[in-house]
Amino acid sequence: MPDWEKRFRAPRVSLPEWAEDAPDRALFVSNATGTYELYAWDRATGTQRQVTDRPNGTTDGVLTPDGEAVWWFSDTDGDEFGVWMRQPFGGGEDVPAVPGLEPSYPAGLAIGRDARSTAVVGRSTDEDGSTIHVVRDGAAPVVVYRHRESAGVGDLSRDGTLLAIEHTEHGDAMHSALRVLRLGGAPGEPLAPETVAELDDTRGGEEELGLAVMGFAPVEGDTRLLIGHQRRGRWEPMVWDVADGSQTELAIELPGDVSAEWYPDGSGLLVAHSFEARSELWRYDLAAGTLARVDTPAGTVSGATARPDGTVEYLWSSAAVPPQVRSTTGDVVLDAPGMKAPGSVPVVDAWVDGPGGRVHALVQRPEGEGPFPTVFEIHGGPTWHDSDAFAAGPAAWVDHGYAVVRVNYRGSTGYGREWTDALKHRVGLIELEDIGAVREWAVSSGLADPRRVVLAGGSWGGYLTLLGLGTQPDAWALGLAAVPVADYVTAYHDEMEGLKAMDRTLLGGTPEEVPERFAASSPLTYVDAVTAPVYISAGVNDPRCPIQQVENYVDRLAARDHAHEVYRYDAGHGSLVVEERIKQVRLELDFAARYLGA
To answer: What's the whole-number average pLDDT of the chain?
Structure first.
């Protein structure tokens, strides 16, 4: 078995989530059976048990605070439209967690530890927009929030009386405002939600700024809410007391984006710092106002949690080293049995002058002397970024003699708010300016063979691939687009409601209101200019990049007898089945070899 297949097949595990009041009970995701599913883990006995078993896999689940049950989201073949199910921690029958709630797209979940057994469920549908429902004492769910724009559950206070909501009632889906409701209602009486606090950084300034809920203090009766803000040009945490309105900005002078979560006793914060495609951990002491480094290797921390004993567990990897769940004790916390994934080559940083500033790219080189056939592997999001983390897909290309370049174009996170927010209105075209600048560098530096440069990516990266093939036809020898936006107008009308809100924010309106912007940013507009062979893979149940708009693009390629292949598979926005992922990579490798001779 070649190394690239071993990387996909090797069993992997996620960072375990532990129950707040039963820390020996944990939940994690693993591909041990060949499909990503949820597993319950009793850390006191070492017992592990598979919770879900579905043909297309399951990854969305949470433990109740008492550790007695697992809630998991049940959709249909990856379409992300479904209901929450509940199963006892030790095993048993799956039952609807909230009887009476119809299927929807999920919009957050909070499960209380109070005596009233409160649960808060966020939902999104085309008909209702965003709704938030509260369930108490086994009674029917009660709507406490409703709006056409996107919104979701932030967090529930420890005593279950306060609910924090992230909303975009102002119409900017990229920058949320916050509202806190006091749920009220004595036992046996109807809920009486009332607004007790509002915070909105989108008003009153020249620029709109976002806010995010990071969590209520884990202390009974504590009204402090940890939130993220962008007031200094990046994400960083702040403590907001929703009872008296006080806002305490923290002395965390780190250069990149900063997020945080509470230590279990409420005395400090576990700080995650992301900067220039790497990340690290710190402990912030709230009383002293001081930072102390939590020792982690160079690379990327994909998740971290502080345990009740003060230790920290984290999921770490680098481009060269596969993921590991580690502890600050020095131990490996959770290690899947079986075959281990082979490593890959490290990344090298490249900084390239672009039209909007310096562009950061991560480069992996195969053995030998260049120039190499080169794959530009473009990340999705767009509000995401590539990092020095292990990725089986790029490693497979390196194994086959390709250089791999990943570009953190304008719109990517981790480089400040202005960089992330830069792509409004000229959507897609701005990102491609940065990608084009890095391509010129790759060729002029001797890294890339200009006759064999591939543009590839999934989701937003797939969209940029198709758009780039049409707007920069002389730059790319081949295109590989997975689950892409291909026809922006049809995609808008068919996609899930939350993404419609994001598109209105990015483009300044609907296709009917700003048709020229949708046309300028749609790959379909430029399909007749495409000269490179095109490979497209698409999930037939995808609610994010729906199948019909892909078919519209493919029909246009076929009408002009252009070289292309399409692979359709029975899943949603990607697959959770290992063999399916391997098949898709193999098809891409074969397509590239056939047309490039690489």
So the answer is: 95
List 143's β-bridge partners, or say none: 133
Distance, in Å, from the CA atom of 57 to the CA atom of 576, rounded to the nearest integer, reads 5
pLDDT tens digits for 333-349? 998 888 999 999 999 99
- pLDDT tens digits for 221-257? 999 999 999 999 999 999 999 999 999 999 899 999 9
With a threshold of 0.90, does the pTM exceed it? yes
Distances (CA, A) of 562 to 455, 474, 536: 17, 16, 13
| Measured distance CA(228)–CA(213) in Å, rounded | 6
387 Cβ contact list (under 8 Å, min separation 6) = 274, 277, 278, 279, 300, 362, 414
The amino acid present at 178, given as its one-letter code, is L
CA dist., res. 434 & res. 382, Å (int): 13
Helix pair angle (392-399, 578-596), 10° resolution: 40
Tokens coding 96? 């609807």
CB neighbour burial string for 392-428, b if at least 16 within 10 angstroms, e if fewer: bbbbbbbbbebbbbbbbbbbbbbbbbebbbbbeebbb
Residue at 526: amino acid letter: Y
- The Cα–Cα gap between 598 and 586 comes to 14
Sheet holding 332-334, edge to edge: 300-306, 312-317, 324-327, 332-334
| Residues facing residue 377 across a β-bridge | 456
Give me the helix-helix angle, 429-444 and 460-471, nearest 10°.
Answer: 70
Q: How confident is the model over 422-458, as pLDDT tens digits? A: 988 899 999 999 999 999 999 999 999 999 999 999 9
Cross-strand pairs, 326: 314, 332
pLDDT at 524: 98
Q: Taking a C-beta distance cutoff of 8 angstroms, is the pair 456, 402 a contact?
A: no
